[in-house]
Structure formats: C-alpha cells, structure tokens
Write a structure and sequence with these properties.
The protein is built from 9 helices and 14 strands. It is α+β, with helices and mostly antiparallel strands. A 5-stranded antiparallel beta sheet has the order 4-3-7-6-5. A 5-stranded mixed beta sheet has the order 9-11-12-14-13. The longest helix is centred in the N-terminal third of the chain and has 50 residues. The chain binds adenosine-5'-diphosphate. Adenosine-5'-diphosphate binds next to α6 and α8.
C-alpha cells in the first residue's frame, strides 16, 4: 500500500516548515518595508528642513512691498520644475504674498491661523486639491521688520514609488523563495525518511513463518535506527513466544496421545478376548486410571493456559502458612501411607502471607506430591515453615534420589523431566513444577531447588510476609 502524499510525514513536515518559513519571511518583509518607509521619510524631512533654511535666505521684499524669491548663483530656484519644491508665503495678516507656479493656484493648507502659536510646524503630509501627496514644513520668518509665514513642500510620489518598488520585489521574491525552499525541503525529507520505506517494506515481508528475519538498520544511532532496533527486539520476543507456543502445543499433544493410546490398546485387547466379570472390571479399572491421568493433564494444561492469558484473578486473603502446609499434606496422606512414608509438617504457626489460598495450596500439593512420588517406600518427607529476611520460607524436603544441580533451573520449564521413564511411570507430565513456579511468582515470591540438600531433594518457597497492622491502628 502506498501512502497518500498529503498524509505522509514527509508532506506534512514540508507543509509545516513551508508555512513557518512563509510566516517568518512575511514578518521580515513587513519589518523591512516599515523600516524603509520610515528611513526614506527621515531623509526627505531632513532635506526639506535644509531647503527651508535656504529658502529663508533667498527671500527679499521689494520697495513696493512685493515678496520675491531669488535663486542662488548657478542654481535654479528651489520652486523651479527641475528642483520640484513648492513654496507659499503669507503675510501676518493672512494675505497670500507668494505662490509657486507649480501650485497652480491651490494652497498647501488652509490660510494660516494666527491665533495658533507658534506657527512653525515640523514636516507633515498634506494632500493637494489634485490628490497629490506632499510633505509640508511651515515656518515664521521675519525680514526687515515684517513677519512672513512660509510653507515649503515637496512631492511624496518619488518616496512612495521607491517604497512600492521594494514591496513588489519582496512580494514576488517571498513566494518564490518559499516554493524553492519547500521543494528542497521535500527532497531532503524524502532522503532522510527513505529508510522508513525500506523498513516498512521489509516488515511487510516478515510473516509468522519468517520471524527469524530482521530489519536491516543503516544508522543505529539515529531515531529511525532506534525504531528499527526496537522493532527487531519485538520480533525477537515474538519469535521466542511463537516458538514456546509451538513447543507447548507439540508437547501437550504428545502427552495427551500417550494415555489415549493406552486406553485404545487396552480396549482393543479386551475386545479380542473373552473373559469373566472380574477380567472386564480390571480392564475398566486400568482404563479409568488412564482417564484420571488424562483429566489431571487437561486440568494442568487449562491452569497453564489461563495463567498465560492472565485470566486468573487472585483472591488474596490472609493465609496462615503452617495451616496451609498441613492441609496440603493431609490431602496426600493416603498416597504416602500406601508407600509407608511419613509426612512431618512443623515450624512457626504465626506466619501469614497475603495470598490466594487455592493457588498457593496447589503449589504445596504439587511439591509434596512430587516428594511422595519420587521418595522410596518408607521414606520421610518434611515440610518446614520459618521466617527469614521478611519472608515466609517453606521447605519441602524428601528422601528420594534428588535432582542433579545441572537440572536445577530446567525442572521448572514446562514438560521438562529429569528421568522421563520414571516420571511417566508415576503419571507425571512435567507440568507440576511449572505450575508451582507460576503460583509462587504471581504472589511476588520465589521458588528454587536447594542444591545443598542431598541426600534427597529440597524445594524452597519464599513469600513476602503479610504486613501486620498494629491493633490500635486497626481500631482507629
Ligand atoms: P512431573 O509431573 O513429571 O513430576 P514436575 O514438573 O513436577 O513434573 O517435575 C519435573 C521433573 O523434576 C520430574 O519429571 C522429575 O524428574 C523431577 N522432580 C521433581 N520433583 C522431584 C523430587 N522431589 N525428587 C526427584 N525428582 C524430582
């Protein structure tokens, strides 16, 4: 499946960066334009200021009282078309004394208001009757005892032309820059994300049958490399649990087949022979034995698969450890008596743990059952309970052949047997200890084989002791 360009990470990244870039550049362009306008205006105002001083020096009044504007040597008059200034001079009485030709009879503002003092005004913008914008500076000027009011103006059009030129350059340049950088960014993002495509294609090829395959990682140090590594680790875990599942299914089918084969062959033999009632009673007896074995096996398998699926909810209550050990031992008393064995349960009666009674009892039953199974006739089994390092410790010691230390870890694996023939003869399927291991771990405890217990065999369970509340606290 190919990803849609608009939805790809590459597309979204480019779009996001494009928008940010456009905003950044627009901000910069607006800032630059405002600064330029401000600067042009400053320059124009400064030259207007200089010019009005020059004009003041060029004004003269004739003997008839006419106001005249001279020109500097070798220069055109400031209000000539080539210099472009506009000038108007008013008498103090508010009568126009001089108007530049360029003004075409219009004025650079209303007649001066003499009540408003001072008359001097720094440069400001004024719109002429014909719509043209000019920058005007006004000044009070005294000459030969007469007060004159002058206004000098210059067109703002060149300033605005320069400003709009700059704005159009920016307006064209900005989208072009954003587009060019956007394309380049899209290409770079594509290059950077290429390993993702490769990894996705490779991951699609890996199915349940090829879980041993891994992604090729080019740069383990970067983020994509880390993602690839994490994916490979997940594959390794998946491969391991698939393998466990396969082995479990194969072992379980194998274990189920053994009693079924036995039932069938006993039945077939009985069908071929004829016998009296006691003969058939024996046959049915041995068939039921196999059925019992099958039932136990199916129950163990069910417990394991429910435990794997996390379906078993613990009903934790306060459980007296010694009492529970006595209860488990009592259930196996009959089997032990058949073999003339004795089971002794002793230890500290005050120890309690918070546990699911039935699950913990099953663990003890399995351990004591093994002790009875593997100890010889007349053997002695001891279950001892004591406290150590904040834990309740339960030791199940027997007088059997023991377990060689190299099997100490493996005996807790499913279907693992040290002595296959013997275990099968005793009706075991190699699941008892893995159930013990599970039930102790879900209670936050540990079970292990005591390697120094020889002769015989000793399993040690450690479970955190219940935290006893102070009686006064309980009442409060
Ligand atoms: P099983 O149902 O075969 O007894 P378990 O999981 O309970 O399966 O035990 C695994 C193997 O560990 C057994 O097959 C047996 O070889 C060995 N084992 C367990 N308990 C004892 C014991 N008390 N003495 C000697 N061997 C034992």
């Amino acid at each position: 499946m190919k990803a849609m360009p608009g939805r790809t990470l590459r597309g979204r990244l480019t779009l996001l960066y494009g928008i940010l870039l456009a905003l950044g550049l627009a901000f910069y362009a607006v800032g630059t334009s405002v600064y330029l306008l401000h600067d042009l205006r400053k320059q124009q105002d400064a030259s207007l200021d200089r010019e009005i001083e020059t004009v003041e020096g060029l004004i003269s009044v004739s003997s008839e009282g006419e106001v005249e504007l001279r020109s500097e040597e070798g220069e055109a008059r400031p209000d000539s078309p080539e210099r472009g200034y506009l000038l108007e001079i008013w008498s103090a009485a508010g009568k126009p004394m001089f108007l530049s030709e360029g003004l075409d009879g219009s004025s650079l503002g209303p007649a001066p208001d003499l009540t408003r003092k001072p008359f001097d005004r720094s440069p400001h913008t004024y719109r002429l009757q014909n719509g043209a914008r000019v920058r005007v500076e006004a000044r009070r000027h005294e000459i030969e005892g007469r007060v004159l009011l002058l206004r000098l103006a210059v067109s703002e059009e060149p300033l605005w032309d320069e400003f709009w030129d700059m704005v159009s350059v920016l307006a064209i340049g900005l989208p072009v820059t954003v587009l060019l950088i956007g394309f380049a960014g899209y290409a770079i993002a594509g290059r950077a994300l290429r390993p993702v495509d490769a990894m996705a294609n490779r991951a699609r090829e890996i199915s349940a049958e090829h879980l041993n395959e891994r992604l090729t990682i080019q740069n383990p140090g970067d983020e994509l490399g880390q993602l690839g590594l994490a994916f490979n680790e997940t594959l390794a875990r998946l491969e391991k649990s698939f393998e466990q599942l396969r082995r479990f299914t194969a072992d379980a089918s194998h274990e189920l087949r053994t009693p079924l084969t036995a039932i069938r062959s006993v039945g077939e033999v009985a069908l071929q022979n004829t016998g009296d009632a006691s003969y058939y009673r024996d046959i049915i007896g041995s068939m039921l034995e196999e059925v019992n074995r099958l039932t136990r096996l199916v129950e163990s398998l069910l417990t394991m698969s429910r435990a794997d699926a996390g379906q078993i909810q613990l009903q934790r209550i306060s459980v007296g450890v010694l009492d529970l050990a006595k209860e488990a031992a009592a259930l196996l008393e009959v089997l032990a008596e058949e073999k003339h064995q004795t089971i002794v349960v002793d230890g500290d009666p005050s120890l309690a743990v918070r546990a699911d009674r039935l699950i913990l009892r099953q663990a003890l039953i399995n351990l004591i059952d093994n002790a009875v199974k593997y100890s010889p006739a007349g053997g002695k089994i001891r279950v001892h309970v004591h406290a150590a390092d904040g834990n309740a410790v339960i030791e199940v010691q027997d007088s059997g052949p023991g377990i060689p230390p190299e099997h100490a870890e493996k005996v807790f694996e499913r279907f693992y047997r040290v002595d296959k023939a013997r275990s099968r003869a005793e009706g075991g399927a190699g699941l008892g200890l893995s159930i013990v291991h599970w039930s102790v771990s879900v209670h936050g405890g540990k079970v292990e084989l005591d390697r120094d217990a020889a002769p015989g065999c000793a399993f040690v369970i450690r479970l955190p002791l219940e935290h006893k509340e102070h009686p006064l606290q309980k009442e409060g």
